[in-house]
Write a structure and sequence with these properties.
Number of helices: 4
Distance between the termini: 43 Å
Largest sheet: 14 strands, mixed
Shape: globular
Number of strands: 14
Strand content: over 45%
Radius of gyration: 18 Å
Order of helices and strands: HEEEHEEEEHEHEEEEEE
Length: 261
C-alpha cells in the first residue's frame, strides 16, 4: 500500500540518518560497532536495519542499510544503502562524502553530497530531474545558509561532545535543524520486543527548522522521535526508537549488537 512506501521513504531519507548516531562512544578510539534493528509498523515487521560504524583515530565511516522484510519485501523489494565518511577535528564530526541509494519496485533514486572542509557544499547531485526553478531554489538556500553538516555527523558531535553545531543539516532533499529534550528514564521489562532489559535514558528529538530544497513551503510531517538508550562499554546504544509522524507511527527494536575494539 501507499502508506508502506511512504513509511520507507521517510524512515530512510531522514529519520534513520539522524537517530542512529546516538550510539557513538563518549571517547574516541579505534572501534567498530555493528547493530541490527527490526522496523515495525503497528504489529507488522516491515524491514530490518543494519549498520556498521567505524572510527579510526580522526576518521569515521558508516555503512547503513535498510531492507524490506517478509511479504513487504516480496511486494516492494525495498533496499536503501547509505555510506558516509568524514574526519574528526576540534570535537566536531565533519562530513566529506555522503552517498545514498534507494531501490524498490516503485523507485530508483540517489542523493550524493560532497562537502568542503569548512562546511560549504562542493557538489550536490540527486537522481530526480530538476526544473530551472527547483535548481534556483536549491542554490538560493545553499547560498543563504552556506555551512552544512549531514544528519549523521551532527548527532555524532552532539551526543559525544554535548555541543550544538552552528551548521544546518542537509540530506540532499531537505535542510533542517535538530533539537533534543531529555525525558525521565524508562524501565524495559523482560517481555519488551528489544533484546535489552533494564532502565533506559529517554530523549525526544524534534525539528524546529525545516525547508525543502526543491519545494517551497514543504511541510515536515515528522513530529518527534523518541530514543531509548542504555550504556555499554561507555557507548550509548539505542534499545528502541519511537517515531511519531502526522501520517503514521513506527518502532525500531534492537535485535543484535556487537562492539569490536
Amino acid at each position: 500500500s501507499s502508506i508502506v512506501v511512504l513509511l520507507y521513504d521517510v524512515l530512510f531519507m531522514r529519520i534513520f540518518f539522524i537517530i542512529f548516531f546516538i550510539i557513538y562512544p563518549y571517547y574516541l578510539n579505534s572501534k567498530v560497532i555493528n547493530l541490527k534493528y527490526e522496523i515495525d509498523w503497528k504489529s507488522i515487521h516491515l524491514a530490518d536495519l543494519f549498520w556498521k560504524i567505524k572510527i579510526e583515530e580522526n576518521l569515521y565511516e558508516i555503512d547503513f542499510t535498510i531492507k524490506s522484510y517478509g511479504m513487504t519485501d516480496k511486494i516492494y523489494g525495498y533496499e536503501s544503502i547509505t555510506k558516509v565518511s568524514g574526519e574528526i577535528k576540534d570535537d566536531s564530526f565533519n562530513p566529506i562524502i555522503y552517498k545514498s541509494k534507494t531501490k524498490s519496485s516503485r523507485q530508483d533514486r540517489f542523493e550524493n553530497i560532497i562537502f568542503n572542509k569548512n562546511g560549504t557544499i562542493s557538489n550536490i547531485e540527486i537522481s530526480k530531474e530538476l526544473s530551472s526553478n527547483q535548481i534556483n531554489l536549491q542554490n538560493t538556500l545553499i547560498n543563504d545558509y552556506q555551512f552544512f553538516t549531514d544528519p549523521i555527523s551532527q548527532l555524532v558531535q552532539y551526543f559525544i561532545y554535548q555541543t550544538d553545531s552552528e551548521r544546518l543539516i542537509i540530506d540532499g532533499i531537505n535542510i533542517y535543524e535538530l533539537s533534543s529534550n531529555k525525558k525521565n528514564t524508562e524501565n524495559f521489562k523482560s517481555n519488551n520486543p528489544s533484546i535489552y532489559k533494564g532502565n533506559a535514558e529517554v530523549i525526544d528529538l524534534a525539528f524546529p527548522f525545516f525547508k525543502g530544497l526543491y519545494k517551497e513551503n514543504k511541510k515536515n510531517n515528522l513530529e518527534v522521535i523518541t530514543v531509548y538508550s542504555f550504556e555499554k562499554e561507555k557507548i550509548k546504544i539505542p534499545a528502541k526508537f519511537k517515531i511519531n509522524s502526522k501520517k503514521f507511527k513506527a518502532n525500531l527494536y534492537l535485535k543484535k549488537y556487537e562492539i569490536l575494539q
